[in-house]
Design goal:
Layout lengths: L6 E7 L2 E9 L5 E3 L2 E2 H5 L2 H13 L6 E8 L3 H19 L4 H7 L29
Parallel strand pairs: 3-5
Antiparallel strand pairs: 1-2, 2-5, 3-4
Helix pairs in contact: 2-3
């Protein structure tokens, strides 16, 4: 059986899901939804957030990353990419688990938007009560 030429990780955050492939021996090129990461996320803070697992594990520029992201907004998608990259790094090298775990990159951030309730203004907001 042929050995895989890449490492895979699925990342999730809010309503976003990222399917991430890590290609070893790369030049550090990161592609998200067929665009470069800078072009896709636009904001430098989101790019930095998505690339944090490489900085923590001292793997900057050693891998090419191909990520497909669906759902949610840009911030949630950046978090999903970070989670996916972390899981792919873990698949490649299980000895890096303590570093990634300590940084909190392996934990799926489960915070999601609360649904709006019927007969009310929003999830928690109510219409003003009038006694008379």
């Amino acid at each position: 059986m042929a050995e895989l030429s890449y490492f895979y990780g699925t990342g999730r955050r809010k309503t976003s899901t990222a399917r991430v492939r890590l290609l070893p021996g790369g030049t550090g090129k990161v592609i998200v939804n067929r665009k470069s990461i800078d072009e896709y996320f636009e904001r430098p803070a989101l790019v930095m957030m998505a690339m944090q697992p490489f900085e923590v594990t001292s793997n900057v520029g050693k891998f090419d990353v191909i990520a497909n992201v669906r759902g949610g907004g840009k911030s949630g998608q950046a978090g999903a990419v970070r989670h996916g990259i972390s899981r792919a790094i873990l698949q490649m090298s299980p000895d890096l688990k303590p570093i990634l775990k300590k940084s909190g990159f392996l934990t799926r951030d489960a915070r999601e938007k609360e649904r709006k309730k019927y007969g009310q203004k929003g999830a928690r907001a109510r219409y003003q009560f009038s006694k008379r």
